[in-house]
Structure formats: C-alpha cells, structure tokens
Write a structure and sequence with these properties.
Length: 76
C-alpha cells in the first residue's frame, strides 16, 4: 500500500532529493534501523545536507508534508 505513495513521492522529488529504500530484513538495513531508532515500517527519514535527520514520519508518508520539508531545505 505504501509503495505506490513512495514511488510517486520519488518522482515528485526527482532532481531535488534522493529517495533511498532500505530493507530492514537485511543486515545493513537492520543496522541502519537500529542506528536511527526505527521501530516500525514504513518509516521515512529526511536528512539535511549535513546528514542530520530533520523529519521523521512513521506510516504511509504524506507526500505534501515531505515535499514541504524538502523545499524548506533548499532555502538554507
């Protein structure tokens, strides 16, 4: 259910942000989930240019809210 939303979001943000999917069933994905305290899927993290988490959303992402956060990062 969330995959089409995330696909649409990736298309909308193309050229302004990079969307990376991580499979928490892999050892790398599990390590990343632990590092960022991800407790449920889907979880969306938005990072700024310095690698700091600036937005977290658990559940199906709201594309408008994510786009607004990304636009705000461009203003820095």
């Amino acid at each position: 259910m969330s995959k089409p939303v995330v696909n649409r979001l990736a298309s909308q943000l193309r050229g302004r942000a990079v969307l990376i999917r991580v499979d928490v069933a892999t050892s790398t994905g599990l390590a990343l989930a632990q590092m960022y305290n991800v407790r449920a899927t889907p979880t969306l993290l938005v990072f700024d240019g310095q690698g700091e988490v600036v937005f977290v959303h658990v559940g199906i992402p709201d594309a408008r809210a994510v786009a607004k956060v990304v636009e705000g990062l461009g203003a820095e």
